[in-house]
Amino acid sequence: MKNLSLVALALLAFTAATSTNAQAVKWHPGHYMSLNTGGSQSENFKHLEEVSREPVIKGVQLYVWWSELERSKGVYDFSKIDLYLNKMKSLPAAKRLVVRVMDRRFGGTSKTGIVPSYLLSDPTYKGGVALLASSGYVSRLWEPAVMDRLIALYRALGARYDADPYVEGFATEETSISLASPTPSGYSTTALFNQYLRFAASARQTMLRSNLFMGTNFVKSDEQMAVLIQALFEAHVAPGGPSTVPNKLTQAQRVWTGATGADYRGLIAIGPGIEAAVFGGKNGSFTPKQIGDFAYKTLGVTHLFWVRNTFTGTAAQKWSTGILPYLRTNPPTRTACPSSYGLCNTK
User: How many domains is the chain built from?
Assistant: First the structure.
């Protein structure tokens, strides 16, 4: 990876863009609001109505549990997504939806409500979930059988929504997993990494017109992350991740900004998130402008997903009194169609 030149990357992008499968990707880069996971439907709909009056906000990110989307094996229930999508289509100004599938829950002692119940009961999936170090559970993504089902879900999502212009795309959880000790049998960092490569190569096959943001932050080594980011480039998948902390690059951010080899900014879509912990929490105490400047100038973001922060930090760091006023200044993101896409549809 370190020896792969930008010329070679450009040739790969040209080949991808001119293939018989190339289609224009829905392209509405900019600032998005992440709906709070604990918010009720009525609260979230109210926030959607507020966002509809803000031209600078391109859309919202909706979090949905895997268990909500797959009621039994291969039987999908997309009614929750449809409710939000129909609400967005009723708004006076067009906004776009990004659906993020949650495959883990931090905190708590219950395994239920995270992954489909058959993953917990069928021995093929070896329990379906594993205990996290900080309490809570994560799906056993290192198991090929479990990853098969997650890939199938994303393919089903693509088959249903790829043609819908209001659906900007889909997103995953982060690559980093901190498991309780001792780690489960069958787990290894290599096994997990290999399944991430499978996901990158396979999940977007039915969503050729939609963005897919993979939450890359950490894997075992820089070398593995370099391979993963290159795999995302080749599969037209966007790196993202939960951590946008000024002057503190994650492993994935170091790779895509060129610290370990090629600089991917401009070659791929980039869509990280901003969590409340940067507004006076464990990740520091930053202003929205400090975060936005870092995201644009250093990370080269195309899409930026802002937490609707109402509970951390000062008034200058909360949604209505700090973040939204900052966004109204129309801070930049990178808007050029990425080379790996080749064709973008801005309608």
Answer: 1
Answer yes or no: is 266 within a domain: yes
Query: Which residues is 57 bridged to in the sheet?
Result: 31
pLDDT digits (tens, 9 = 90+) for 164-181: 999 999 999 999 999 999
**Residue 276 identity:** A
User: CA–CA separation, 158 vs 57, rounded Å?
Assistant: 24
Beta bridge partners of 273: 305
Rounded to whole angstroms, how far apart are CA atoms 150 and 142?
11
CA angle at 344 for the pair 341 and 347, rounded to the nearest 5°? 160
CATH number at residue 98: 3.20.20.80
* Residues 217 and 241 sit within 8 Å (Cβ to Cβ): yes
> Which structural domain range is residue 277 located in?
6-345
Q: Is residue 73 part of a domain?
A: yes
User: Whole-angstrom Cα distance, residue 222 to residue 229?
Assistant: 10
The answer to whether 286 and 29 are in contact (CB under 8 A) is no
Q: Is residue 1 part of a domain?
A: no
The closest alpha carbon to 171, from 33, 52, 268, 272, belongs to: 272
Task: Render pLDDT for 117-147 as a digit per residue (tens, 0 to 9).
Answer: 999 999 999 999 999 999 999 999 999 999 9
CB-count exposure of residue 275 (10 Å: 0-12, 13-18, 19+): buried
Task: Print burial letters for 156-193: b (CB count within 10 Å at least 16), e (below 16).
Answer: bbbebbbeeebbbbbbbbbbbbebeeeeeeebeeeebb
Residues 6+ apart with CB under 8 A from 246: 278, 284, 286, 290, 291, 293, 294
239 in any annotated domain: yes
- Burial of residue 211 (number of CB atoms within 10 Å: 0-12, 13-18, 19+): buried
One-letter amino acid identity for 334? R
